[in-house]
Design goal:
Layout lengths: L5 H13 L2 H8 L3 H15 L4 E4 L2 E4 L1 H28 L4 E7 L1 H5 L2 H12 L3 E7 L2 H9 L5 E4 L9 E16 L3 H5 L13 E5 L5 H13 L5 E6 L2 H9 L5 E4 L10 E5 L7 E9 L7 H20 L11
Parallel strand pairs: 3-4, 3-5, 7-8
Antiparallel strand pairs: 1-2, 5-11, 6-9, 6-10, 6-11
Helix pairs in contact: 1-2, 1-3, 1-4, 6-11
Length: 319
């Protein structure tokens, strides 16, 4: 069977709705003879009678009623196709792949952004992936991710744009019952940890935080004694809870809690903060305009959410 012409289907639907060929021709802005030929060609196409003609007008046959129902649905879908393509071109419909580190997901801003994005663009499907900063950035380079929330801006990736969107304070994570828990009700000076064994997030997975902690300890006058490196920040907390040492983690990790773990703020003199970056490819992203527009709309929403919450998050901007 040949491809059905939508113009003939529209002519048929209009005739059925009007119940009169003359009125249907007027509605379609064509003459009656061409309309009659369109209807005849449609009947010839299916090899069945679709309309019963009476002196007072026309009515669809039983088979014609089936075609009328299906044709209306098809025409409605065709009418909406233009709007669908416009939404896709503007980045408001399609699929987007978003990555984040485990600690980024614990920061209230990231799930709030994802929720808001779903509300504003309900016809975009977000595929989420959790991994370390290095792996996420490499996935952006390999084009298996579109955007990512990371903690470390890895060097040597000129094709990526990595923007710091906020930063949060770092906290000392101590085993429950540690002497410092009893001695401090306020911020802890970093040099009070000089004799402690440190549990740190493994450097290849979190180079930025790892190096920042070491640099802060050096400024405080000591080199930290690292007793264990863990693959994830959550693993650090488990080891702290087991009493194997202390750790320094982003403030958002407090939301995770952890059995046997107590969190204390660091003094301002430590100058330790955990930044959060938004990373994406420069230029054409996935090498097509629809994906580029979608990533642009996502980045714009992130920035608008930052502006809306500006007064509540001044401490996270390092201002």
């Amino acid at each position: 069977m040949a491809t059905i012409d939508l113009r003939r289907l529209k002519a048929f639907v209009t005739v059925v709705e009007e119940g009169n060929i003359t009125r249907a021709a007027q509605r379609l802005f064509i003459q009656q003879p061409p309309l009659t030929r369109l209807l005849q060609s449609l009947e010839d196409e299916f090899g069945v009678k679709l309309l019963s003609r009476y002196p007072r007008g026309v009515e669809p046959t039983d088979i014609g009623k089936v075609l009328f129902k299906e044709a209306k649905a098809l025409l409605a879908q065709a009418d909406s196709l233009g709007a669908t393509m416009l939404r896709a071109t503007e980045g408001k419909q399609g699929d987007i792949r978003i990555g984040f580190t485990s600690s980024a997901a614990l920061h209230a801003f990231v799930p709030n952004v994802l929720r808001r994005y779903r509300e504003v663009y309900p016809q975009v499907t977000a595929q989420l992936e959790e991994s370390g900063s290095t792996e996420l950035l490499q996935a952006l380079v390999n084009r298996t991710l579109d955007v990512a929330f990371v903690r470390t801006p890895v060097l040597g990736m000129p094709e990526l744009k990595i923007e710091r969107i906020l930063q949060e304070p770092m906290m000392v994570a101590l085993p429950d019952g540690h002497p410092l828990v009893q001695q401090h009700s306020g911020p802890v000076a970093l040099n009070t940890l000089i004799n402690e064994g440190f549990i740190l997030y493994r450097r290849p997975a979190g180079q930025g935080l790892y190096d920042a902690i070491l640099a802060a300890c050096y400024r405080a006058g000591f080199s930290p004694r690292i007793v264990q490196e863990a693959p994830r920040l959550t693993s650090c907390l488990s080891l702290v809870g087991a009493g194997l040492g202390v750790s320094i983690v982003p403030a958002c990790m407090v939301r995770l809690g952890g059995d046997g773990v107590v969190y204390l703020p660091l003094s301002e003199q430590a100058e330790l903060h955990a930044p959060l970056y938004l990373a994406y490819r420069k230029g054409g992203q996935r090498k097509d305009s629809q994906s580029s527009a979608m990533i642009t709309t996502f980045c714009e929403l992130v920035k608008s959410q930052l502006e809306e919450g500006d007064n509540q998050r001044l401490d996270f901007y390092g201002r």
